[in-house]
Design a protein that fits this description.
With 307 residues, the protein is an alpha/beta fold. It contains 12 helices and 8 strands. The chain has an 8-stranded mixed beta sheet, with helices on both faces. Helix 2 links the parallel strand 2 and strand 3. Helix 1 packs parallel to helix 2.
C-alpha cells in the first residue's frame, strides 16, 4: 500500500480539487494521511467532509499538534506513516491519473534490481500551470533545476528531488529521524539519505500540474532572468545560505556518518572541512575539486562569489 502524506494549512481554495485528483488515481491501493497545521479558513471542514465521504481512503490525523512549517508538518506525517511506500502531497496542485502508478512501477523496478531493504527514492516531472490550470508554457531550461545531478556531492548544495513528485520506500523513510531546525526541507533530507545510502532515480514522466499562484510557498523561478540574477547577488539570504548547507551537512554526518561508505564519507567530510579554510581561493578550489556545485552557471558563479 501507498500512503499519500498531505500537509495542509489554509488551503481551502484548492484543496477539494487536489483531493479529487488523488481519489481518481488509476492505482487503487492507497490512502491519504492528512495533518492540518492550524488552518483558520475552511480547510478542516473540507478534510472532515472527505474523511466522511471516503473513510477507507482519507484519514485525518486530528491530534491538535501545530508544527509551524511545511517541513515540520511533513516530518510529523512521516512519523505517522506505516505502509511500504509514501508520497508527499501539497494542497494546491493537481495529480494526473497515473501519478501513483507511474511512481510505483519505477520503485518496484529498483527494488527488484536491488532489494526492498535498500533505501530508494523516485521522483518525476510536473507541468507548470496558472491558478486556473492553464499551461504557462514555462521554459523548463530556465527553471531552478534544468539538469538533474543526483550524486551526493551535488545534493549537498542543492536539492533536485521535489517532494510533491516523490515516492519513498519504507527502508528510506524509516531512516528519516526526528525533525531538526537544521534540516532545510523534508524532501532534501530524504534525497541526501537516498543519494548517500541507497538509490535515487529521476523518471521523465509528467505526473502533476504544478499550480502557480500568489500564495505559493515555493514556486517555479526563471533563473536566467536578469531580475533573478540581480536579486540573488544582493540578497543577504543568498550570502548566508552556505552556512545553512554546512549546518545541515554536520547534522547529516552526526546521524549517518557511520552508515556511509568510504567515498561518501570522504565527500561529506571534504564539504564540511572546506568551510574551515581561511582564504576564499582555497574554499573555491575545494568547491570545484569536490564538485559541490549547483545546476546552472549563474548559481555556480554565486557560489564562488560568496564561498
Amino acid at each position: 500500500m501507498v500512503e499519500v502524506l498531505l500537509a495542509t494549512y489554509n488551503g481551502a481554495k484548492y484543496l477539494e480539487e487536489q483531493l479529487r485528483s488523488i481519489l481518481s488515481q488509476t492505482f487503487g491501493d492507497f490512502r491519504i494521511l492528512i495533518h492540518d497545521d492550524g488552518s483558520t479558513d475552511g480547510t478542516v471542514g473540507i478534510i472532515k467532509k472527505y474523511t466522511e465521504m471516503y473513510p477507507d481512503k482519507c484519514v485525518f490525523i486530528d491530534d491538535g499538534k501545530t508544527c509551524g512549517s511545511a517541513a515540520k508538518n511533513f516530518f510529523h506525517l512521516i512519523g505517522c506513516a506505516s505502509t511500504e511506500y509514501i508520497m508527499f502531497c501539497d494542497q494546491d496542485d493537481v495529480w494526473l491519473p497515473e501519478k501513483i502508478e507511474t511512481a510505483y512501477k519505477a520503485m518496484t523496478r529498483i527494488e527488484k534490481k536491488a532489494s526492498r531493504d535498500t533505501p530508494a527514492l523516485v521522483f518525476a516531472n510536473y507541468r507548470i500551470v496558472d491558478e486556473k490550470l492553464n499551461d504557462t508554457h514555462f521554459n523548463e531550461r530556465n527553471n531552478q533545476i534544468s539538469r538533474y545531478r543526483l550524486d551526493f556531492s551535488h545534493l549537498l548544495v542543492q536539492n533536485y528531488a521535489t517532494g510533491c513528485l516523490m515516492m519513498c520506500n519504507r527502508a528510506l523513510y524509516s531512516m528519516c529521524g526526528r525533525y531538526d531546525e537544521r534540516i532545510l526541507m523534508h524532501d532534501w533530507w530524504l534525497a541526501l539519505i537516498a543519494g548517500s545510502c541507497g538509490v535515487i532515480r529521476h523518471i521523465p514522466d509528467v505526473v502533476m500540474l504544478y499550480r502557480q499562484h500568489g500564495d505559493n510557498e515555493v514556486g517555479a523561478v526563471d533563473v536566467r532572468s536578469p531580475r533573478y540574477v540581480i536579486d540573488k547577488f544582493f540578497d543577504k539570504k543568498t550570502r548566508d545560505m552556505k552556512y545553512l548547507y554546512l549546518y545541515q551537512a554536520k547534522l547529516f554526518r552526526k546521524r549517518y556518518g557511520d552508515k556511509l561508505k568510504r567515498e561518501r564519507a570522504e565527500q561529506l567530510n571534504g564539504f564540511i572541512s572546506m568551510y574551515s579554510k581561511p582564504f576564499k581561493v582555497q574554499r573555491a578550489f575545494c568547491l570545484i575539486r569536490g564538485q559541490y556545485l549547483k545546476s546552472d552557471l549563474v548559481r555556480i558563479i554565486g557560489q564562488l562569489w560568496y564561498i
